[in-house]
Amino acid sequence: MTIKQTVDNPYSPWMDDDAPESDIVISSRVRLARDLAGYPFPHLLSGEPAEEILRIVADAVADEDLERRLGKLKVVLLSQLPSLDRQILVDKHLISPDLLKAGNEEAKGVVISEDERLSIMVNEEDHLRIQCILAGLRLQDAYLLADAVDDGLEKTVDYAFSDWLGFLTACLTNIGTGLRASVMMHLPALVATGAIRDVLSAVSKLGLTVRGLYGEGTEASGNLFQLSNQITMGQSEEEIVSNLESITRQVINRERTARRYIFQQKPEALKDKVSRAYGILRHAYLLSAGESMQLLSDVRLGVDTGIIKGVNTRMLSELMVISRPAYLVKTGGRLSAEECDILRARLFREKMTENEGS
């Protein structure tokens, strides 16, 4: 798959709906922060040394063992991508918003596997950000894949490492393992019952942090919450992943209990809410970004509770990407706010009709 195909297609494998706990856990992600010994951190790096990092990474990912396991790895220079394509990679969660921050664009890049399970950001906050993202609750699988890639790169890349502190990173909060594990969870029933505040408060006391759809600095949208570990030192990588999975399962149980409560107490109100949302997505001619995210959340709840038939949640995840401004402008050219709302509604109608016919 070429980079053009990657940005043109709103689908990524993390959107699949046949994964464990995928009715509540949209995706699992593991990210490893790594820096090269002998080089300044990216915020102090420019010119030839920064470009040398890119060359070192490009050579390292050409490893035959990695290609055998992951297929061909695409090395893409950020400077060679149009700004819209860069933003679509963010919307598909293949790169972070931080990679797009101004400065040093000539030395920034990303390595993406053909199946989009793996991406390696180069010269973001750290020299390397190795990321694996999978559908559903598959933290262990994501960690094992990221760890294998990490080991493969370490054959030829000399990491900055301290026997006392562990992996050395640009931000003190990542020193140690350099590991951030996260799950993207859909929690509409906890939000509807008002229990979400207590749940998220309890989660934070257990060493996790809660962010929005696109990570640090973003708001929760469409009842989607990202839970991730706060601590990267004092625990092994395996312990961090295991702890997050254990807490995630507790939140899953709370969400399922809340869904049963809503269905038992006011079944007609729930059916009306999700059915109205489906009707609007299926027939609307104007849809704002905020409204579409809430409607997608309601329809997803309807699908997961069995109220709405014949709709797959993979398509709903694709629509999240389609609803974003970058994809709309890439599809329709320079658009006013109202034209974006019109195009968003049209693409939603077309996608829903296509789903019904499949």
How would you describe this structure to a colleague?
This protein has two domains: 3-183, Creatine Kinase, Chain A, domain 2; 267-357. It has 13 helices and ten strands. It has helices spanning 3-8, 47-60, 64-70, 83-91, 139-154, 188-193, 196-205, 237-265, 267-283, 289-304, 313-322, 325-332, 337-357, and strands spanning 25-34, 73-77, 109-113, 118-122, 128-135, 161-162, 166-167, 179-186, 208-211, 224-229. Strands 2-3-4-5-1-8-10-9 form an eight-stranded antiparallel sheet, covered by helices on one side. The protein has a two-stranded antiparallel ribbon with strand order 6-7. Helix 4 crosses helix 12 (325-332) and helix 9 packs across helix 10 (289-304).
| Alpha plus pi helix count | 13
Averaged pLDDT: 90
Q: What is the H level of CATH, i.e. the homologous superfamily of the largest domain? A: Glutamine synthetase/guanido kinase, catalytic domain
CATH topology of the largest domain: Creatine Kinase, Chain A, domain 2
* Count of folded domains: 2
Ends: how far apart?
24 Å
